[in-house]
Amino acid sequence: MRVYRLHPQSLLIQPLSFIVPRRSDQFHPDLYPPTRGPTPAASLAEWQAGLDVVPVQLQLRPGEFCVGMTSAALSTALHIRQAGQSVIVRIGFRRNFLRLRDLQRSISGQLTTTSKPVQLKGRSGSPKLITSDLNNEKKFRFLSQITRPDYRAVEEREDCEEITKLIEVTQKVQEGRRSSR
Asked: Record's superkingdom (predicted)?
């Protein structure tokens, strides 16, 4: 495909060149850079205390986890790890520290990698899934179960009381909606 830019004042036709990514199963990191995740990096108390942290970022490549570390900070952490010092590495913004042992764990792959949002608890840096992800796991477990329909009459079932209560509640809700109109 060829694209041209027309310059009407100078009667010039300029060819434009660009690269179109082809359809493939490969991940295109230039099209999908790390993006800011929905999980806050600091709690309200930490933020009110003046803690300034790098936002939690999502790596859009499946199976990877990113906390917004720059390559310079990562190389500094690798350099300090090779020297064998136990220090705190300063990354990015004011008072934003990440412990070296957590860096070593993340570099060596001991941390669980996920493309889901994570919440960093305290200053330990150990990622923990937020509640919505845990709820998603429960939903997927429920949906993966086999549905066993029960065609018996409501009076014959073991959970008859629960079903009648549920029917009464839904009727009350529907009546409340009708009366509010």
From this structure: Eukaryota
Backbone angles phi, psi at 120, to 5 degrees: -85, 120
SS (H, E, C) 136-181: HHHHHHHHHCCCCCCCCCHHHCCCHHHHHHHHHHHHHHHHHHHHHC
- Domain positions in the chain are 28-130
pLDDT at res. 107: 53
Q: Cα(92)–Cα(85) distance, rounded to whole angstroms?
A: 20
Rounded Cα distance, 103 and 125, in Å: 9
The pLDDT of residue 130: 54
Looking at residue 15, its pLDDT comes to 87
88 beta partners = 99
pLDDT tens digits, one per residue of 133-149:
667 777 878 788 887 78
Is a pLDDT exceeding 50 seen at residue 79? no
| DSSP, residue by residue, 16-35 | E---PPPP-SS--TTTS--E
* Closest by Cα among 29, 36, 77 to 53: 36
CA-based nearest residue to 38, from 117, 152, 153: 117
Element spanning 127, H or E: strand 127-129
Q: Which helix (H) or strand (E) holds 103?
A: helix 100-108
Whole-prediction pTM:
0.26
